[in-house]
Amino acid sequence: MAVWTWKGIKKGVVSTRYPDETLLMPDGYRGKPEIDAERCTPTGCMRCAEACLPRAITWESDRGVLAVDYARCVFCGLCEEVCPDHAIYLTREVELAARTRDDLTVQVRLSSAGPAHDAEDLLETEVAARLETESRRVFGRSLHVRHVDAGSCNGCESELQALNNPYYNLHRLGIFFTPSPRFADLLLVTGPVTRAMEGPLRLAYEAMADPKLVVAAGACACSGGIFPENALTMGGVEKILPVDVYIPGCPPPPVALMQGLLLAIGRAEPRLKRTEINR
Amino acid sequence: MLLSLFLLGAPLYLVGVMLALVLPGELRAARMGLAMTAISSAVGLLGSIMSLSEGHTRLLTLGSFFPVGALELKFDPLATFFLVMIFLLMLAIGLFSVGYMARYQGKYSLRYFPVLLNLLALSLTLTVTANNAMLFLVAWEVMALVSYFLTVYRYDHPGTPRAAFLMTVIMEMGAGLLIVAFLLLYAFAEDFNFDAMREAVPRIPEAVQGVIFLCALFGFGAKVGIVPLHIWLPEAHPAAPSNVSAALSGVVVSAGIYGIIRVTFTLFGGGPVWWGIVVLIVGAVSAVLGVMYAMQTHDLKCLLSYSTVENMGIVLMLIGSAIIFAASDLLPLASLALMIGLYHTLNHAAFKGSLFLGIGSLEYATHSINMDDLGGLAHRMPWTACWFFIGTLSAAAIPPLNGFVTEWFTLQVLFQGFRLPSAFLKILLSLAGATLALTIAMSLTIFLKQYGMSFLGAARSRGADEAREVPRSMLVGMGILGISCVGLGVLPFLVIPLIDQVTTPVWATPIAEKVSADLILHPYYDGFSAVSPSYLGFVLPLLLLVPLVLVWALSSRKIRWVERRWLGGLDAFRPSMQFSPLAFSNAIRIIFGWIYRPQQDSRLAFPYSSYYVRSTGYRSHIFPLVEQYLYLPIIKGTKWLSRGAVRFQSGSLNRYITYIFLLLLVALLLRIL
Amino acid sequence: MEETSKRVLARIEEGWKTAPLKVSEGPPGEIECEVPTDGVADFASFVVKALHGRLVSVVGQEEPAPVLRYLFSLPAEQVFVRVAVRLEPGHRRFPSLTPIVHAAHWYERELHDLFGYEPVGHPHLDRLILHSDWPEGTHPFRKSCNLTHPVPRSEAGGEGPALGRDGEFELPFGPIRAGVVESAHFRFLTVGEEILKLEMQLFYKFRGIERLFENQPLVLCPLVAERVSGISSFAHSLAFCQAVERAAGIAVPRPACLLRTIYAELERIYNHLGNLAHLCEATSLRVGEAQCSLLKEYAKQFNAKLSGHRFLRGINAIGGVRRGLTAGQHRELLGAIDYIGRETKVLTDLILSTKSHLDRLVTTGILPEKLAADYGAVGPVARGSGLPWDMRKDHPYAAYGDLTFNVPVYHYGDALARMRVRMDEIPESIQLIREAMDRFELAEGDLVAPLPQIPAGRRAIGWAESPRGGLVVFVETGEGNTLRRCKVRSPSFCNWYLFQATVTQTMMMDWPINERSFGLTHAGCDL
Predict the structure, then answer these.
(1) Domain C3-104 has what CATH class?
(2) Where are the alpha helices (DSSP H) in B66-201?
(3) What is the mean pLDDT of each run of 10 residues along chain C (527 residues)?
(4) Would you tell me how many other CB atoms lie within 10 Å of the CB of residue B602?
(5) B615 vs C167: CB contact, 8 Å cut-off?
(6) ipTM above 0.95, yes or no
(7) What's the number of domains chain A is made of?
(8) Chain B contacts of C102, Cβ < 8 Å?
(9) Taking the domains of chain C in order of start, what are their residue ranges?
(10) Which of B250, C186, C341, C445 is deepest in the core (most CB within 10 A)?
(11) Is residue A155 domain-resident?
């Protein structure tokens, strides 16, 4: 047994200091797709929308808008492959957590006609700011998370389990996984919510004491991902419970999960906002 | 003063008997008779307590005739103390029975019961106050007879007649030993009076003293239920109706303790060390075996009966320590040990009585005393749950209740063994202390199991589901004993001076001032250790209430009460999802398998092939050690002897005349020689 | 027809005279035999006993006509035999194969739940996939069941288990369990220390993912295959792509085969490391768990560097792979597997010398060889019980036919045996990667073959050995380069039933260790 202790000591401290240091994914990692509206074919060839399995990229022909929804994206890179103009390309950015689905959308106006956007941002910012300070006050230093698997493929669970390995070491942030919803402050849900898991998920939410937060991790939980909204899969957690933070990814790597959890308790800033690009 | 009260009390028992027999209306007659029990007990209780505080001794002669001598009743502090116990229990039982007996209307004769109960109370009072061996034996036998009839009250339940019969057989074996003991004493004292016997003791040779002591120990021990004479307890106490079980476990076994104390301390003044060693070992073995078998039973009353065996084992350990300390000239510790022995007997009567009455309420409400059928009764029967809980806490020795006080003291007494001169005795007392510690831990487990399986969780059967709170008289009966448990626990500074009146005359060492001073208790030597149940009785409830009040007052959020259990996301709860009584004690059963020798058998049912198992069937039995290894050989031996003796019963008249002639010859020879 | 298929066909014609048989050819190494409904049990028995076939999957299909196929693997000849049975549209009954071939147990129950096909004579025909709140007569994979509307929930609750009176009680566990684990329900029938019987209710994660393959552009289908079981994404997409390639007759370029082998072995490495970490966690060997999970994290980060995704997703395409390796990545790969090899050796040596850890694994969860063979166990579970079954050797695919490697087999069948199988497979994987790298030469345009127009009605089997065992995919093409039916059979589906059998009459404390040593997923099983 002493040999193990020696091995551990020899290894030394390997934990990252995120969020105090930046953690970058390697070059070539398939992260957030960016659209260069200038390069896009004037009329819109729509090959990217056809190649998108979860329908994250959609073409609204009546408004002339190419819409990207990161909550649906599975970061497969097929859009980049099929685009003839190199107008859409994947970056290596993975910290995409946001408080609302709206913040995860990008609207690219390809034609000049179209209505102007509405100005409800101001109100949202205020509400968001208040939520942030309140969350930080209550949960900022210690958060207990209850994870519920509502039908995921197990990829998200693997990344969540990786949060407790020595490299990411979630405990140093004061965030712990707890076995019972009665002890939990935050409900972390993965999977599109299958029919069989709808009941247990609701029971878990009701079993938590106030104040509580809900975080949807992964494309399936944010929006249903590749799964349609039908009798077998509900189409995302927001159809069942009020979601406080969405963490896109398929699966979101541990750094994205950490950003999402810290965002939920007010210790990180969201990096995405609803974006409108005009050509 | 007591005399006048007693003179008032005892005839009231007889009045109760008459009312029960004479009044019209079966239920009303029974209720009147039982009310009379309660009233006379109340009166007697008051008188006894007052008399005990004065510490006087009084004599009462009922008459005299040859060859028995004067039928004297002596109200010395020891007798008065036991009278307190008897009157307290009878008061509670009487009140309880007023409501309880309604259940038996139409099934059994209701008039008959108060008659028996009052006679039991009367015979008990005569037993503890008798100063004449013959009067004592007659009262003892009456008590045994009445106990038999009370136990067999529900004669049509399977197993009840056999249980009562077993009880009587062992009682009579004990009585036989008692007769031998008293006759031996008479041979030297030439008088049946206890005072005369005490004066004759110095003339009795050591060996004969030993024989008398052992006969008395096992004779009274049969009533107390020490191992190996305990086998009737777990059968008879459950077979009797619950209020009778309360009386049996509470006062009737205490009468056995009274007998042991009377013979050992009043007559012999302590005796040599080896008597103490025997008593200590017998006590320790009873305590451990009692609690171990209590662990594995599912029947609530059986569990309490084994617990009686355990507690009587503890009392015997204290008596043994008293003898050892006295023989080693540590008289204050001997007095302390005896004092605690008496205190524990009283406490045991209070909490055991309360628990049995509680079970009576359970039986009344759910028609079952098997833990596999109960559960979830705390909400349905809140007052019963409350009193039962107090009884459970006392029995499990939780501060600040009465069980805690005496168990703490017992451990302290045993730990004082280091003051003894001999190394062997030091080790013996330390081992006894370790055994006691094991016993206390296990008794906590069994009472946890008992309360948890019966009152907490969810109802395991329809009977439990439909239970409702019991009539008020039953609650009052339980309440009296419950309050006594609390009082005996947090007010020991009132109790100890009273018991000191009992122990002081034995060795002329009053210890009350050193033991209980300023609400703090010490085991005589105040540098050794101290505890204050009185302070605890004040502080512990505060520790519970203050945080709750703070949370309620300072919390800004509304408290949401949740009814729904968290089942891992499942929706439907079934009562079978709780721990069963067997599962609760399964770990102990495996660890102590060398005592239990469990035989278990787990069969999987697969109608098609072993690959498709449909259901399981699990059976488990405990191996009855004492019955198998002690009684069975004795029974076999007796049968063998009887078969041999049958040969003498030839039926031929000539043979019989020859036998008589031979006997006459032998008798004449003996007289000549 | 290929040589091997011809040989098998000859043996069938020689040995089977009983009932009429319609034999058709499939892709190389696959034979389809259609038998009448009443002859299927006998024919399947013949395949198992005389031809030494192993049941690997059962596929039900509604279109164009109700038919079910039993897929048998004949590893000796490296051939698959598909036994097809047409069902009457009216009653859809067929004689159950389970009494003869126990491995068919769950497959037939799955057919019953999803399609409403009734296996007559099945010894345990309870609901498997559909929980008790599905209304009677609703079968989600039938065309008549419209999944776009919500299906009402029926009130009929599940019954409690049959319990004895003598103190047995049930301990429910799940579906939401302690820790970050998948959702499944286990019900222990116990008397406190010993588990008398384990009843499982899985399929809480049933997503109906097989329907997502249908009528979808073929290009997008590998993405769906990857998400059947997220931690063996590569093996699943590999098996799927190979199935379509075989159906279409596409020849995959050699460099792509080598790359596929390399990535498959990388997936095996990080999965096995994760399993070692899990086992250490179960026995509370904290430093072991930390070190193994740290090494797994290194492997996943390297996967990201090499392929752009930590789980190696987005590599497989139909006809080859989507990206290759630069010279720099070539060097990095060799360096990384050297490092992993060295660290793994140190860790495995340490684990094997930790008596307290081994103590808890020895004789825990013994799976007898006969039971494993009868039920068609796969993967390290089978190889830990003495069955040398590995799809890389039994039916070589990608580049495995040309590479040399060993398949470790242990015979005791306990948790220690399964752990040792995985421990020994890591160096074998590293060796495979090195050998594949040696033969790898990159040439432009060598990575993916073009996708032709595939006629409808082509059927083929694809397979791969994932870290948890062999997985088998069956596809039938439809119009316009889509799929009419795709059936994925993950290794966890075969092994979960066996887990139940190893738990009966064992101690409660050994259960988590046993579960971790099986190392199965629920997503793969529940689909």
Answers:
(1) alpha beta
(2) 77-100, 112-129, 133-151, 160-189, 194-200
(3) 81 80 85 88 89 92 88 92 87 88 92 92 90 89 86 76 76 91 92 86 94 92 95 96 94 92 96 96 94 96 94 94 89 94 95 94 92 93 95 93 94 95 96 91 73 92 95 93 94 92 88 94 90
(4) 18
(5) no
(6) no
(7) 1
(8) 611
(9) 3-104, 209-492
(10) B250
(11) yes
